[in-house]
Amino acid sequence: MSTEPTKYYVPDQSVWPIVGALALGLMAFGAAHFTIEASKQEAGFGHYVLGAGIFVLFIMLVGWFRDQIRESRAGMHNLQLNRSYKYGMLWFIFSEVMFFGAFFGALFYARMIAVPWLGGASNNAMTAQLLWPHFEAIWPLTLTPGGTETQAMGWFGLPLLNTMLLVTSSITLHFAHIALEAGNRSKLKLWLVLTVALGVTFLFFQGYEYVHAYRDLGLTLASGVYGNTFFLLTGFHGVHVTLGALMLFIMTLRVFAGHFDKDNQFAFMGSVWYWHFVDVVWVCLFVFVYVL
Amino acid sequence: MSTVVAENNDAHAGHHHSKPTGIKRWLFTTNHKDIGTLYLWFSFFMFMLGGSFALVIRMELFQPGMQIIEPHFFNQMTTMHGVIMVFGAVMPAFVGLANWMLPMMIGAPDMALPRMNNWSFWILPFAFLIMLSSMFMPGGGPAFGWTFYAPLSTSYSTDSTALFVFSMHIMGMSSIMGAINVIVTVVNMRAPGMGFMKMPMFAWTWLITAFLLIAVMPVLAGVVTMVLTDKFFGTSFFSAAGGGDPVLFQHLFWFFGHPEVYIMILPSFGIISAIIPAFARKPLFGYSSMVYATASIAGLSFLVWAHHMFTTGMPTFALLFFMYMTMLIAVPTGVKIFNWVTTMWRGSMTFETPMLFAIAFVVLFTIGGLSGIMLGVTPVDYQYHDTYFVIAHFHYVLVTGAVFSIMAAAYYWIPKWSGVMYDEKLGKLHFWCSLVSVNILFFPMHFVGLAGMPRRYPDYALQFADLNAIISVGGFLFGFSQLIFLVVMVKCAMKKGEPAPAKPWEGAEGLEWTVPSPAPYHTFDTPPEVK
Description:
The structure holds two protein chains of two kinds. Helix content of chain A is 74%, strand content 0%. Chain A is mostly helical. In chain A, helix 1 packs antiparallel against helix 2, helix 3 packs antiparallel against helix 7 and helix 7 packs antiparallel against helix 8. Chain B has a single domain, classed as Cytochrome C Oxidase, Chain A (Up-down Bundle), CATH 1.20.210. Chain B contains 15 helices and no strands. The N terminus of chain B is likely disordered.
């Protein structure tokens, strides 16, 4: 096996990729059947298969990352390989940007085109008269043409607090990164733990906001296109915050185990980039979903 | 562009890990050549499967009236044919070619992220098992066309939609990971001295294709998610009663779909740009203009999506914008076609099988391109929309375009992959059978389409009967001609044929021809110097 750091490290055979493929296959198959069964409120095998897939995925992640960390610690990763990882991470984040782009696109289309047209804008006056003469095109869409009523989520209070939490967490994480570069381990640990704590607090408040929406406002996933875009955008963002927080938590454990320094910190840097990305998405969400 | 290798660096003795054997070699591999082979065989299998679905369609359409299958099953066949050919045959074939050729072409030891590479491949068999299993669900599989327009895929679909959606999700993950791997490899792994403007065109076209993939596959993931929640969780993205709009589906889908079309043709451009110079024994005419043309096509592909929706209803300025943008794409595409023709001009041409396929590509792809321009003219499209003219158009682009280029690539590089020359007689037989039958199959579709025969119906009016019978005959001839291809490739895989020299084609250029045939398991342990 080539171990000289000048050579590009091509890993030996690995069992993890195909385990990962099996995991995704089980998860997709299980999630699909679970969706069908849940929508009919029938008992079935879907959730078992989904659970098994998640379990296999977990095993795969642990195994693959263990190999990866071991190789990194053994100095098998040269500069060129580190560059590959960095580019890979950046393009992955770009793909995530495009994923959110689809949902933001849906939001803008609904708001700027679909809802006004339903209300008779452009050349749709006659259609509006014939279909839903009493429909009023307003945003947030609190009364759909079909008659579903809901209340809008305000931006003041919890959402504003959450914005401040997440923006602060990006700053604390940046301080952690500076501390790592400066070799100041105790500061690094402090800022990193603080960041994870801020992220978890954000998630807690976000969960509370969902309860508030369902219980007090009658704002649900099925409340017309306002509720749809609200829950899918904030929901997918929440999933990404969870993932980002998990990544940072693992980085915290690794920092406490003495990993990473100025020159060997790809995993840390990747997690930091991811966290900043999630933060930027939130700022867009706050502006376009809550405030405007 | 010329790449001269200073020193042929094939001193890659066994100091790398030894070549693993048995089934584990394929399951756990991190080797770009093994993964490339897996992709190519998978793609051929899916090509035959999707092709057999097409033959079911052609069987039903041989005569007017309901002949063999139920309309609902007919719709499932059109859906699955499209999904399998796009996501299971053409795209994996290109990824397979990229895996085999890119590291060799740019002088890299392997793909940049070898384990992720294997993950990308092995997701595909699982994804398609799920997709195919949907056909055995109660009520049958997806029957809404590969474009899964709402509300066909939401209000009027069966439960199997959930399987369709999640299968698409993991297929998309596989594509994104594959694309990330290609970009990182091309950007980060080039041998010293190989600047961007010295790269083979195939590397360039794949680099740009990979960018398109990363940009649009997530949008597909988004839109299938909305279909899922609309169908199962009570959202109304695509339902007017809840403030949504079914037209939004078409915008999102085609924002993915149009770049997707170029994802399936740009790598072809790279292949043809390698083969024509080799057999014309002249360097590629206008290398840098080829690069810029490819990049322009990719850029424009984000601005033309609504030409698929002219009849859906849009403000006039939008119709005009998308029409003019579509016309504009003809310019860089024309640059490419003229460059290929000019490369052949006064060349010392020979006509081995790869060259035959490449020349057929240039001619027939141009026919597909020109019918595309016709479809891009808004008022004209009002007449052609959803007729067989559209089917003729995109099959000329995808079958005689993408598929022919993949076959050209297979014949061109098989000596390097297997170490033996393919059977030239059988190869030529395959070419001529394919060329004649594919035109019997698709050319008359222009006429029935112009005469008004709509697509996606299991029955048709009597006046279309004669041409449809001819089309069906062409379909079966084309389908069975591909068995010749299978025989040629299996013979090579079994090493039956003349041993191939390192460079079997006199005029071929590039690093891949500096290493022995078959290419050693690990090609460039230390990067070659490119001058």
